[in-house]
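re: that complex we talked abt at group meeting.

here r the seqs, copy pasted straight from the sheet so there may be weird spacing, ignore it
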Amino acid sequence: MAYVATRGGERAIEQAERLFRAEMGEITEARVAEIKAAMPYLIDRVMGEASLYDEDLAALALAQTGGELFEAVLVLRAWRTTQPRLQVADPITQDALFTHRRISAAFKDIPGGQVLGPTLDYSHRILATDVLNGFPFKPAEVEPAAQPAPAYQPSVAAWQADNDLVDLPPIDDTAPEDIPDVTREPLLFPAKRAHTLQSLARAETGGALALGYAAMRGYGQAHPTVNELRLAEADIMVRHPNGTAFSAGRVKVSQAEVVSKKGEKLELGFAATLGWNEVKCISAATLDLNSAGAEKGSATEEEFFIYHTEGVESSGFCIHFKLPHYVTFQSSLDAMRDAKAKAASRKEPAE
Amino acid sequence: METPHSSHLSILARSGAEAIKPFAETLIPLLGDVEVLKSQTGLVMLPMRDTAQGTAFHLGEALVSEAHITCGDIEGYGMRRGRDLEAAMAMALIDAALQSGIASAECQAFLDAQQRTQAAEDHARLCQVEATRVDMETF
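got the structure back, here u go
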């Protein structure tokens, strides 16, 4: 076994990158602005997986990678490392979320009511092909209510606790600077819950869905019901040098609570992410709900789902198989030929 | 408990760049010597509290622009989401003016106008959201 250093291919590599970028052509500020305006849910998905909230940068990453999502997330995560961390904000709490959508599939009459917000859940999925024939699609305008919805909605779980259906957890008063952070410390198992939830927050959406769906279909311990789903905006609460707390702006967040119906009280699973991404949150909350006591190597076991939903690592490992493996492959071929020769010699009839 | 200073800073952080920059420009001649301590982009980590087990965890980071200045003994500070360093500096200048009592009436009028704009945006959005409320009927 040996490593062989080779040369050559620089020109091919340079031209290959040019060929990739040629398909996208010139990237302008206007194109980035158009992507940002036209695809907010894609922007949200990329920001959540990149663990970096900035719509302009996410739109730029999409423009630069031609919408290759793994590359877009990778380039954002790489850029993130060039920036200093200036502060850790005050923790976001559910009762301080400026809420745009909040529903429960478990209870019809939740305090605050069912507010659908922006969704296609109940819409016909019909492709507007007329657009391709020169007829623009102009969506009908919302007919606003005379009175506004409450900006802040109560917690469904708190109401359930009042009805002795769930036990509310004790408040974790860890100082923001001391909260465990998977981007700055190793991920060890059994994982700290803070690491698990942070990993799920930055998980690749398709990965979280695949494993969460496995649990939903029966390869888990509990079937989820959505206890509460929220799409909201959260204030970034930072500090002035004199200590005054203030909001540096809002970010979109989504969170899901799912519930199992085992035992005397309801058990909750939870997940949240930056941006509005319901599928990821419901899937990830389902994994959280099912993780306690999950069998090693099963889809709902935390080591399994944390590692396998990490999009940058998993896609990176996948695409590394495209890189030259000439020596290792040749070595395997030699071993195969050797085994074949030995087998052939054993089959030769005795004289 | 939100203090007036906290409220002012939150309004300034949410104000549109097209409004805050020209207003801050009018304050520069009044502020005297300004020393810039920081003018940079960076990240703010956002923790969140989980509702199932109460655990505080990191949701992810937001890109912000930060400006930190001094005018004599006064520290002006700006931090806003996004990568607009000029807007963050404008926020710091207005903060310094407010704390120094410079152009107080103009600053207060600017804040009031911005607050009205922001409240109107929230009101309009929440009226749209309210339109999606489900009126449950039991048969």
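couple things i noticed - The beta strands of chain A are 52-53, 85-88, 98-103, 225-239, 245-260, 267-274. The mean pLDDT of chain A is 93.
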